[in-house]
Amino acid sequence: MISKVFLESWTENAHWAQTQSAEEASPKGNGPRLPRYSLAEQRERAAKMKLDDLRAYFRLTIEEASEQLRFCPTVVKRICRKFGVSRWPARKIKSIEKQISSLTPLLYSCSESTRVHVAAKIKRLEREVARFVPYVD
Q1: Fewer CB near the terminus (10 Å): N or C of the chain?
Q2: At residue 25, what are phi and psi to the nearest 5 degrees?
């Protein structure tokens, strides 16, 4: 669950970014430039972040997630390590999802024992993904 303070500051800045003119677009060309925080404000935002605030971004690469959160990747890593996440889980999640998609056709196998074994393995892999993210797509 996203903390209330974090969500309020995020919505204020999202509203500000929507009201900016087109000539203030970001140099990458993907929308308006978001407001920059002072170093003190960034530190305050980072201190208020919870692990649940990051879970929604675990499927993205750390670069994409940090861009959306408007932190540098180092700050995102530091927040993760504060809560015991030693590595950014995006690659692990993609790997598990790839395993699940390769096993899914075997559920329609002729052998009942194969179907039972594959179903159990898929269930185990889905539980492993659920450890990282609150839901499975």
Answers
A1: C
A2: -65, 155
DSSP 21-53: -GGGB-TTSSSBPPPPPPHHHHHHHHHH--HHH
Q: Which two tokens stand for residue 13?
A: 């800045």
The per-residue DSSP string of 68-103 comes to: HHTS-HHHHHHHHHHTT--S-THHHHHHHHHHHHHH
Per residue in 17-42, pLDDT (tens digit) is: 444 444 444 445 566 666 666 778 88
For residue 122, what pLDDT is reported? 95
Token representation of residue 125: 């892999």
Q: Which residue in 132, 136, 137 sits closest to 83, CA to CA?
A: 132
> What's the full length of the chain, in residues?
137
- Answer yes or no: are the C-beta atoms of 62 and 73 closer than 8 Å: yes
